[in-house]
Amino acid sequence: MAGELKEVQGIIFKRQKYKEADLLAKIMTKEDGIITLVVRGALRPKSKLGAAAMNFSYGTYVIYTSGHGLSNLRTYKEVKQFDSLYNDLTKNAYASFILDLIDHAFIEYQPLGKYYDLALFALNKINQGVDSEVITQIVQMQMLAAFGVEPNLRSCVLCGKTQGIFDYSIKLGGIVCSDHFRVVNSRLHLTPKAVAVLRTIGLIPLNRLGKIKLDPALKKETRQAIDRIYRETLDLNLKTKKFLDELKFFK
Ligand SMILES: [Zn+2]
């Protein structure tokens, strides 16, 4: 297939040295998916292409692509930078994990659709100083569907009840109402409040998400539940997650 020049909107998120002064950088785009770009001469001092391909840069890029394999970054228009993601180690770690997570849910050039909006939403919020931990939990709950393990958060997996007190069962793949607490051995024994948070952040469309404020104990409980859901349903082992956990340990 012949290549073509194409304008894409995207976020740069993973860089590694390639040949000589060239760089490989991943770009996350909405319509064209995740693409690995060769950025020629990017590692030379004063390279403009290199500057436009810094981590967490976003904007309009002009690439030469054949729709598979490596593409080439040719030039760019209106590229901006999420400054505080770049400069703040903790925010950087959260943002890197989020983009890594999305990276693992898709194959290259597979359109991301609403998950691109999710990435932009999360990066914007973290960059603005909104609680990175809460934003990350929202992303993780919403990403489960992209990994093909969308839990039933709407209604009890056993009887369909939508209101009441709920717990969560990884084995059953969703929430269970208090009518079956005695018979469901696999439930996580979460507080009803934590389950309510998981439901809210997993279900609500981003544009309707208001400010979500969680006290530290609740945030820790939902963190542990989400980690467990990920551990027991997906085999990811992301280095970015490990780094984030270590960073939190030392804070
Ligand atoms: Zn039920």
TrEMBL record:
Gene: recO
Primary role: Involved in DNA repair and RecF pathway recombination.
Domain of life where this protein originates: Bacteria
Taxonomic source organism: Lactobacillus xujianguonis
Listed GO biological process terms: DNA recombination; double-strand break repair
Record key words, sorted: DNA damage, DNA recombination, DNA repair
Protein name listed in UniProt: DNA repair protein RecO
Any GO CC annotation of this UniProt entry: bacterial nucleoid
Annotated family: Belongs to the RecO family.
InterPro entries per UniProt: ARFGAP/RecO, DNA_rep/recomb_RecO_N, NA-bd_OB-fold, RecO, RecO_C
Domain DNA replication/recombination mediator RecO N-terminal: 7-81
Pfam families attached to this UniProt entry: RecO_C (PF02565), RecO_N (PF11967)
